[in-house]
Amino acid sequence: MRKAISYVTVAGMLFFLFAVAGALPQLYDPNSPAARHVSPRYIEKSHEEIGSANYVTAVLADYRGYDTLGETTVIFTAGVVTVMLLRTGLKRKKL
User: Which of 72, 91, 73 is nearest to 83 (CA)?
Assistant: First the structure.
């Protein structure tokens, strides 16, 4: 019974994933909302608003700083958990 519930759950999640992915804009579409509205604004206004000559630095550090901080936190947490799990495995082998 538990296996059947697991299979149905996984199948439902896969269906949801493919349905949502199908609704995303095509890659490299010049008419996508990001290409028509967001990117031009970053290119036009980043130097006067941020003062950085590098667009990538302006976007990652200033416009999307909280996203970058969140991503860094997730990667750091994953690393810490991995080290903790590996150390736990080493302690069990010694016993």
Answer: 91
